[in-house]
Protein: GntR family transcriptional regulator
Organism: Pseudonocardia zijingensis
Amino acid sequence: MCILAVPAGRGRAVTSDAEKPHREQSALVDHTAAAIRERIMSGEIPIGAQLRQAELAAALGVSRTPIREALRQLQSGGLIEVLPRRGAVVRVPAPWEVREAYEVRAELEGLACARAAGEISSDQLDELRRTVDALRENPPPAAADDRFHSLIHEVAGNERLARTIRDINNAFPRNVAALVLEDNPRLRANNIAQHERIAEALAADDAELARREMREHVIAAGEALARWYERRSATVFRG
């Protein structure tokens, strides 16, 4: 009996080729979802705004199919919702959701601060202080606040911790935090003072003080954000 040998790896190659279009489509959907998410997070697409598939497809240079799948992905993540007679819209978070998320974030950010105390270098402290100076601008650039926190996460040296904090942050449009401070000069002054105290606690290598200052800062930021949504949730694209 003659047995026809099949060269090693040929079967796998055929399977791989067959799966290639699916992988490419999946990657396109992920890329499209990321692009839409970035526009929402930056405020380019504001909370409550309608997400029209044709407009998004034209803006991103793709067909409606990846747009439709990307919107489903963002809906499952809670960033958008589908409303009767309006379709997909950027979701307006409920104030209680903000408070719950920031309660968890406060503990995680406090842990990152405690880990960073004693590890942060003088150059890193200088950069931290420069970000605080940038926060004095009006409106304060979101990138400065992001860098303040991400630098501490880097020094803390725990990627899982940093990733979990990022996941919480990505549940809410980032530009809103800047709007909250822009609307309230007293809140801005308090926010800057909180950042300064965190930086000085880290400079003093005081892990518990750094943890406490960061936790209080995040709780205060979450409460201010929740109240902002409370004032607007009844009217933002709701009639």
Notes: The two ends are 80 Å apart (CA to CA). Residues 1-6, 9-15 have pLDDT under 50 and may be disordered. Residues 186 and 192 are 10 Å apart (CA to CA). The chain has two domains: 23-90, 95-232.
